[in-house]
Specification:
Helix content of chain A: 25-40%
CATH class of the largest domain in chain A: Alpha Beta
CATH topology of the largest domain in chain A: Rossmann fold
Order of helices and strands of chain A: EEHEEEEHEEHHEHEEHEHEEEHEHHH
Strand content of chain B: 15-25%
Oligomer: heterodimer
Radius of gyration of chain A: 19 Å
Number of strands of chain A: 16
Radius of gyration of chain B: 23 Å
Largest sheet of chain A: 7 strands, mixed
CATH architecture of the largest domain in chain B: 3-Layer(bba) Sandwich
Largest interface: A-B, 46 and 42 residues
CATH superfamily of the largest domain in chain B: FAD/NAD(P)-binding domain
Number of strands of chain B: 16
CATH class of the largest domain in chain B: Alpha Beta
Shape of chain B: globular
Number of helices of chain A: 11
Strand order of the largest sheet of chain A: 11-10-9-8-12-13-16
Helix content of chain B: 25-40%
Bound molecules: flavin-adenine dinucleotide, iron/sulfur cluster, FE2/S2 (inorganic) cluster
Structural class of chain B: alpha/beta
């Protein structure tokens, strides 16, 4: 049944891999696209990047971080159970071309999400370098799978516990120091990481695509909550993106708009946590909601 | 029509006062999401129906875009045959419980009623609603016997009122009908846009269930163009109907629109209705109550947003650039909004939205005056120089119209569209592509529920003719055959 959970496991602290039965989505999935999941009947529509799929098995894979209510609800689901709704694929597929040498950079869920990009760029005849950014060694994941489709993997850790110490920009420096010419780059991860990565490629003049992860409600171009300014034009991330030119994105606006519901998100998280913990009874909860 | 039994004279009919719809108290309802008009009682309904003069020329019927047989159904109401009345209406209008509530009756059936000017039109909408509710609540809704399978397959894209009509009409002809809907509930604007207090979702659900019981295969969360390609549908189905609506929100391109606290009406209403944001945190999608919400625009959508804002507990203001008489919303909604304490800033236009730390703190507006008539025949509002002023507010909802839903059309380069992006069709709602019909808001631009249903009916007839090898309705061939 569509939406049935086959695997739901924590791969490194706070990053989970979810494999769902979704043959129709698997059949149409392309690199750079996303799906939306509604975890349960009261849930929000939450976007996640398609990080792998298997047309024959009819399955799709996403990596997610527990950030708030929706992702907390996901972690609680067990194989055999189902998510309430899964819809997709959505968004425009990434433009895959032969550029020469392509750098795909990932942070947090991006370590999982860059896999289809790396694979497609490789298949298009590029030399592909993956750069994995993590706070520390033990939260690096997906290396093995990525190594199948890349020419090189560079690990960058903030604490220097492995690979290059620092962030994407420090990794960029290593590449430039050894005279590596990068023709194209693509980054997936938290907003901050994508912004800093775009800043890092700019001095080298490397064309840079980022997969924006704005707030979304419908994901079909109907509500406008996902609007971003790109080169001064209003774009909807769900239908015009999620890929945009990282050097043209108005990052201040992206950040400001993401904070739009911070207070409510915290409230919802606490509310749900209390409910899970049994602190709010079914009756008390409905009263509180009014 | 059979002779009426009550034997009243025209004079006696005109002497009956127009029924007053019982309503939830304005104070109470301003803080709940329950329906505002409570519905007529059976006695009221029978009495009101007797006001009909049975005019020979039936101006009311001409005023109705789908030509509901109004005097005939009113006669049945007068005899207490409510279920029969509902079924009669359904011959032309499959969603009377919806249209009775949301049609702009004063511009259509009731506005053209002979009694309108002097006595107030017969309450056709309220009666339509009454009999439909009565049928739903008091009778076993009969599922028509399964027609002989035709062996033909029809795909309907979009489950708004136009898609529902096409599906409902064609399932009766024995075709296999599949309806694709992008969102997780069927009904289009009826579920994501129009709020609960104006159209209880229960009603839409019942109608959708009725179609499902008749055998319509309803495929939710399938975005045609993304989840399934149009080409695949064209291969698998004998006809395809596109009813994807005009859901693309328009922004104003004024300063400050990116600020937090600025919503499109679609976002605001979708959070409220489809995602049940008013039940947050019980439901996960938040819809934070504003202290003061300014809604820009004057249509039904704007009234709905303003009334939702009021119900969430804040002050609520409509900012509209023309005068009160020009408000495009249904009269009843404007009246209800006023009763609920919504402030109207008319002849006022926003200039910019003012922000602090990324959040809305106010809006600068300018006063307008009416100049010469424009293309639409309405006097054009022109800004009064130097009349700028600021309104303090923490939310702004932009409700100045919508554009065509682009997702599907983008994937169909050969489809003929006009310069605003709406689909071009002939008088039978056929597009330039073989096997493909379109109707509703995606053809006309944002219009009304009943017009979308009317378009669905026209398309369904044309599809039926096509599938059975008959001449197209309205062609010479067809007329010859009919005579
Ligand atoms: C196209 C797209 C693809 C995405 N792909 C993935 C993916 O593959 N894996 C994944 O884990 N997440 C992904 N995201 C982000 C994910 O949708 C959000 O993290 C999600 O809102 C979390 O929901 P929640 O209810 O658990 O947390 P919320 O309650 O919504 O948020 C909790 C906290 O996280 C912050 N937050 C909210 N949205 C985001 C966001 N988009 N990015 C970062 N922080 C956010 C909030 O400000 C808040 O502080 C994607 C987003 C988009 C738009
Ligand atoms: C807030 C609001 C209040 C209104 N009030 C009134 C009123 O009081 N009276 C009145 O007569 N009219 C009113 N209207 C207008 C009326 O609702 C519309 O004219 C009518 O719903 C149009 O019907 P439709 O079938 O063309 O499309 P819609 O109702 O817009 O339905 C289109 C459906 O298609 C789906 N869709 C879009 N793209 C795809 C795709 N690619 N694949 C699958 N599905 C897709 C959408 O999700 C949607 O469900 C109101 C509109 C709004 C927004
Ligand atoms: S469908 Fe609308 S216009 Fe027609 S009779 Fe009913 S309420 Fe009036
Ligand atoms: S116009 Fe009014 S009075 Fe005349 S038939 Fe129609 S509803 Fe009756
Ligand atoms: S998420 Fe609603 S328009 Fe993009």
């Amino acid at each position: 049944m569509t939406g049935k959970i086959l695997v739901n496991e924590q791969v490194v602290p706070n990053v989970h891999r979810l494999v769902l039965d979704a043959p129709m989505i698997a059949r149409r999935a392309q690199p750079g696209q996303f799906i939306m999941i509604i975890p349960d009947a009261e849930g929000e529509r939450v976007p996640f990047t398609l990080s792998d799929w298997d047309i024959e098995a009819g399955t799709i894979t996403i990596y997610y971080q527990e950030a708030g209510v929706s992702t907390m609800k996901l972690t609680a689901l067990k194989p055999g159970e189902s998510v309430h709704v899964v819809v997709g694929p959505l968004g425009r597929p990434t433009k895959i071309e032969k550029h020469g040498t392509v750098l795909v950079g990932g942070g947090c869920y991006g370590l999982g999400a860059i896999y289809p990009l790396a694979k497609a760029f490789k298949e298009a005849g590029n030399k592909v370098i993956a750069m994995l950014e993590a706070r520390t060694t033990y939260i690096v994941y997906n290396e093995e799978r990525l190594s199948e489709v890349t020419d090189e993997i560079i690990v960058v850790t903030a604490d220097g516990s492995r690979g290059v110490r620092g962030h994407i920009k420090d990794g960029m420096k290593v590449l430039s120091d050894r005279g590596e010419k990068i023709d194209h780059s693509h980054f997936v991860g938290c907003t901050f990481m994508m912004m800093l990565s775009a800043e890092a490629t700019k001095p080298y003049g490397i064309p840079t695509i980022v997969s924006l992860n704005t707030l979304m409600v419908d994901g079909t171009g109907m509500c406008g909550v996902c609007r971003v300014l790109v080169d001064g034009n209003t774009k909807f991330a769900c239908v015009d993106g999620p890929d945009f030119d990282g050097h043209m994105v108005n990052w201040d606006m992206v950040f400001a708009r993401k904070r739009g519901y911070e207070g409510e998100e915290n409230l919802a998280y606490q509310f749900h946590k209390c409910r899970v913990d049994g602190a709010i009874s079914q009756n008390a909860k409905s009263q509180e909601a009014v | 029509m059979s002779k009426r039994r009550d034997g009243l004279t025209a004079k006696e009919r005109m002497a009956i006062p127009r029924a007053k719809m019982p309503e939830q108290d304005a104070q109470a309802r301003a803080s709940n999401f329950e329906e505002v008009p409570l519905g007529l009682t059976p006695e009221q309904a029978m009495e009101e129906s007797k006001r009909c003069l049975e005019c020979r020329k039936q101006p009311c019927v001409h005023g109705c875009p789908v030509g509901v047989q109004i005097p005939e159904f009113l006669d049945l109401v007068g005899q207490g045959k409510f279920v029969e009345a509902a079924r009669l209406i359904k011959e032309t209008n499959i969603l009377p419980a919806v249209t009775g509530r949301v049609c702009p009756q004063e511009d259509q059936c009731e506005g053209d009623c002979t009694l309108f000017k002097k006595y107030g039109g017969v309450s056709i909408g309220a009666l339509e609603r009454f009999v439909a509710d009565y049928e739903r609540n008091n009778s076993i809704v009969e599922i028509p016997p399964k027609p002989k399978p035709s062996g033909k397959k029809v795909a309907v894209i979009g489950s708004g009122p136009s898609g529902l009509t096409v599906a409902g009409d064609l399932i009766l002809e024995g075709h296999e009908v599949t309806m694709f809907e992008a969102l997780h509930e069927a009904g289009g604007v009826l579920v994501y846009g129009i709020p609960e207090f104006r159209l209880p979702k229960e009603i839409v659900k019942a109608e959708v269930n009725y179609l499902a019981k008749q055998g319509v295969d309803i495929q939710l969360h399938k975005v045609v163009g993304m989840s399934i390609a149009m080409n695949e549908l064209l291969e698998e189905y004998d006809s395809v109907y596109i009813g994807v609506g005009a859901g693309l929100p328009t922004f104003m391109r004024i300063k400050g629109e990116e600020l937090n606290g600025v919503f499109s009406a679609n976002e605001y209403l979708t959070r409220a209705n489809l995602m049940k944001g008013y039940l947050f945190p019980e439901y996960d999608s938040p819809l934070p109550p504003g202290k003061h919400t300014c809604v820009i625009g004057g249509g039904n959508v704007a009234m709905d947003a303003a009334r939702v804002a009021r119900r969430l507990g804040g002050e609520s203001t409509i900012v509209y650039r023309r005068a009160r008489e020009q408000l495009p919303a249904r009269g009843e909604e404007v009246h209800h909004a006023e009763e609920e304490g919504i402030d109207f800033q008319l002849l006022t236009n926003p200039v910019r939205i003012i922000g602090q730390d990324g959040k809305v703190v106010g809006m600068e507006c300018i006063r307008m005056e009416l100049g010469e008539p424009d293309d639409s025949g309405r006097r054009r509002p022109i800004p009064i120089e130097g009349s700028n002023f600021e309104i303090e507010c923490d939310q702004v909802v932009i409700s100045i119209g919508a554009g065509p839903n682009p997702l599907l059309i983008q994937t169909m380069p050969d489809l003929e569209i006009n310069r605003w992006g709406y689909i071009e069709v002939d008088k039978n709602n056929r597009t330039n592509i073989e096997k493909v019909w379109a109707g509703g808001d995606i053809v006309t631009g944002a219009a009304t529920v009943i017009l979308a249903m009317g378009a669905g009916r026209i398309a369904a007839r044309s599809i039926q003719a096509y599938l059975t090898g008959q001449p197209q309705p309205g062609t010479e061939e067809q007329q010859e055959e009919a005579s």
